[in-house]
Amino acid sequence: MKKVLVVEDNNDNREVIRTVLEHYGYTVVEAFNGEEGIEKARNEQPDIILMDLSLPKMDGWEATRQIKAIDALKNIPVIAITAHAMSGDEENAIGHGCDGYLAKPCDPKSIVEIVKKYLKED
Amino acid sequence: MTLNLNSDNNRPFLKIRNKLIILFFVIALLPAVLGYMTLLLYQNSINDQVQASHSAMEESFVKLVDQYVINCHKVIIDAAVQPSVINGVSSWNNSVLQERFSSIFKRYKNFSFVLAVDKNWVVRVFYPQNLSIIGKKLPFSSGPSSSVPSSPAAGLTNDKPGISDVFCSDYIRDPAVVVVFAPVKDKNGRIMGALMGGVDIKTLSSMLDKLKPNKESYIFLTDKKGVVIYHPYERMLLNDLSENNVIVKELIQDKSGIRSSVDENGEKMLTAFKLASLSKWGVVFHDPAKKAYANLVQVKTFFIVITLIGLIVALYFSISFSNRITYPIHELQHGAEMIGAGNLNYRLNIKTGDEIEKLADEFNNMAEKLKESYESLGEKINIAIRDLKDAHGEIEEKNKKLSEADRLKSQFLANMSHELRTPMNAIIGFSSLIEEKIYGEINAKQEDALKKISKNAKALLQLINDILDLSKIEAGKISLSFSEFDLNLLIGEIVVMLEPMIKDKSFTFEKIFDKNMKQIYSDRNRLKQVIINLLTNSIKFTKEGKITITAKPVQNTDKVSIAVSDTGIGIKEEDLPSIFEEFRQVDGSYTRKYGGTGLGLSITTKLLDLLDGEIKAESVFNKGTTMTVIIPVRVKNGEKT
Q1: How confident is residue B6, by pLDDT bands cut at 50, 70 and 90?
Q2: Which of B82, B132, B351, B437 has its CA 20 to 30 A from that of A80?
Q3: Domains of chain A by range and CATH?
Q4: To 5 degrees, how large is the angle CA B96–CA B101–CA B107?
Q5: Count of CB contacts below 8 A, A vs B?
Q6: Which positions in chain B touch A109 (Cβ < 8 Å)?
Q7: Distance between CA B572 and CA B320 in Å, rounded?
Q8: Please, which pLDDT band fits residue B641 given cuts at 50, 70 and 90?
């Protein structure tokens, strides 16, 4: 069972993501801000990280940058799932180290699809 | 500072001052030329005078020579007929004759010697006493050289008195000797002998010297054959000049005259010559030209000096006068240059009391007025600059505020987008989870409601996207990215993308491409958005019939047209102009019936503005609509963002 770390501060949105991923058989680990995200990534060694970008304490861009700077974690794919969906936002996210990008609002199925894509489960 | 007076064309430039100097100088030169011409005339008359005076002198020399020689001759002739002399000769009593000669010639200084010969030309008596010659026969000597005449006999006969040619003798002290001769006859007229007197040439020459006009002039004498009797240069004595000296050559032909010549020392001479009529001696009078014409030279020198002084004075006055005349003109020129260079405080100080002073006064007035108008102009400009600076400050202030407002607006847009999307994500997500039955089975009514929630959520999302798009375009926040691409391929891509929307509709769909369509250069994504907007509109408002999309180059232009035609509900003619306005669907009820935000065409129009394109709509109510987009093949400022 693949383990997905979802870093998301909005409870409802985190619930949607967790629900659909668990429905499709993934183990979901949750974090509420960037700092916690890095800590969970270290402790849980997830197969993939879904990262919201606007987060309290430490935002998703910084968290991604730090994860990508840690040797043990840098190979874990980080997918930005964000409501920052204006032009330039995707490039900005990739620039901070994100491997993929998904704009909110999104269909839950598209979340499963992008996770599958990055875990090469197609 | 240089004044470029001759810059327009290369006309020669000559200062007024120099013109005046030249004029004055020429005027001064005129009397000099006239004076010189007068001098030339005067020179001729001087020449005549000099020649006349020299002729007269020559005449007096000749007269003196003739008198002297003839006088000697007369004395000898007189002596030859004195009874005591005849007696003495008849007996050849030496002491008696010696005593006679002494008494006759003691008083008379014009002889250097007197001698008596017998009829065989043998010397019997010589006075003053000189025994060495007594008994010698004529000629007295053969002489050192045959070229030197040694005989007094030439021209002499023993029966007539005469004057000998010049000669020399070993027995006589004088270097050149001429004798006057008279026969001594007895009472029956038979010749017993002859008396000969040596003419004292030294005395003659000293008499002549006294008559000379100056020390450097000199006289020489020749006998009738052209042999030199007397010459101040002793080496010339006894020289036969009859061949070599042109003057002597003429002289012995009894010609006389006056002419310029060059003497033995190479000096220029004025020479007068004449053969004495009685003695037949040639008299040649040399006067150095510089002495002869001393007067003329003096006059000439005087004239030249006076002329030069005159010219120098004329030059001096012409320069100073020209300077005085041109000085104020220079001042004027300088003043004009100073004013021209912007020194408006410069004033001329010219007090010549004439037109130039008036001109200078006018110039000063002009400069004053110029200065005043410059000052008032400067004041006005300063005020204008101050106002401009104030305005500039205000503009900068406003610009600052504007850019701050702009930044806030962008920030607001970003926040709005983010904050609207976050709850939408939850709505769409949960609806989808239920619809996908992840939370378990739902009944048909619940499913229908969920579909409506989903549909409205998506409509709301579309509305949000459209509003944000519009805001971004209006705020200039939309970024364009130009590239070259194939329009036909793009349309094909869009049609494939829209296929889900038309698969359960009952109209046909047609693409018409032009083979001549080239690659175009524009923003692919924005153009894609425009075409999608037009096609989704047509799909939305068409129930049956046909939708056609046609892409082709516009003839004779650098543009392409993309036309979307449908057989949909159409638009009333009076509504056509307003369809591009925001939040405008022709009938408010359409929104309810057909969905959509009413922002599509407005966004399309604004995007086309960015792509230098345009859109027009043709429609017949209830028959269909054709929307035509025209864009340039290449966007002009392709790099704008």
Answers
A1: very low
A2: B437
A3: 3-118 (3.40.50.2300)
A4: 140
A5: 69
A6: 432, 436
A7: 102
A8: very low
Which among A13, A20, A85 has CB closest to B426? A13
Chain B residues close to A19, C-beta within 8 Å: 433, 438
Which residues make Cβ contacts (< 8 Å) with residue B558, sequence separation at least 6?
Answer: B632, B633, B634
Residue type, B44: N
Q: Which residues of chain B lie closer than 8 angstroms to A20, CB-CB? A: 429, 433, 438
Main-chain dihedrals φ then ψ at residue B358, nearest 5 degrees: -60, -45
What residue type is A11 in one-letter code? N
Indicate the burial class of B221 (C-beta count within 10 angstroms; 0-12, 13-18, 19 or more): buried
* Cβ distance of A105 and B421 shorter than 8 Å: yes
Please identify which residue in the block is written with the tokens 């204006």. A86
| Count of all residues that appear for chain B in the document | 641
Q: Provide long-range contacts, Cβ within 8 A and 24+ apart, for B577-580.
A: B579/B617, B580/B604, B580/B605, B580/B615, B580/B617
Q: What is the side-by-side strand order in the sheet with B179-185? A: B123-127, B111-118, B191-199, B179-185, B162-163
B545: left (phi over 0), alpha (psi -120 to 50) or beta: left
Which residues from B are below 8 Å from A when comparing CB atoms?
Answer: 413-414, 417-422, 424-430, 432-433, 436, 438, 457, 461, 468, 472, 478-479
- With tokens 């900068």, the residue in question is B396
Select the residue of A19, A87, A105 nearest B479 (Cβ to Cβ).
Answer: A87
Closest C-alpha to A48, from A63, A27, A32: A27
Residues of A in contact with B421 (CB under 8 A): 83, 85, 103-105
Read off the pLDDT of residues B137-163 as tens digits, 9 standing for 90 and up.
765 544 333 344 444 545 566 677 888
Which helix (DSSP H) or strand (DSSP E) does residue B629 occupy?
strand B624-632
**B195 close to B85: Cβ distance less than 8 angstroms:** yes
CB neighbour class for B188 (10 Å; exposed up to 12, middle 13-18, buried from 19):
exposed
Q: What is the pLDDT along chain A (122 residues), one digit of tens a residue?
A: 899 999 999 999 999 999 999 999 999 999 999 999 999 999 999 999 999 998 888 999 999 999 999 998 989 999 999 988 877 788 889 999 999 999 888 889 999 999 999 988 76
E-only strand ranges, B289-436: none
Distance from CA of B490 to the nearest CA of A (A): 21
Q: Verify whether the Cβ–Cβ distance A87 to B478 is below 8 Å.
A: yes
- Reported ipTM: 0.89
Bridge-based pairing state of the strands A48-51 and A78-82? parallel
d(CA B585, CA B593): 11
Residues in CB range of A51: below 8 A, 6 or more apart: A7, A37, A60, A63, A64, A78, A79, A80, A81, A98
**Residue the block writes with tokens 């770390």:** A5
In B459-606, at which residue ranges do the beta strands (DSSP E only) sit? Answer: 482-485, 506-513, 520-523, 544-554, 559-566
Closest CA to B489 of B551, B439, B536: B551
Chain B: nearest CA to A15, how far in angstroms?
Answer: 9
B426 and A107 within 8 Å at the Cβ level: the answer is no
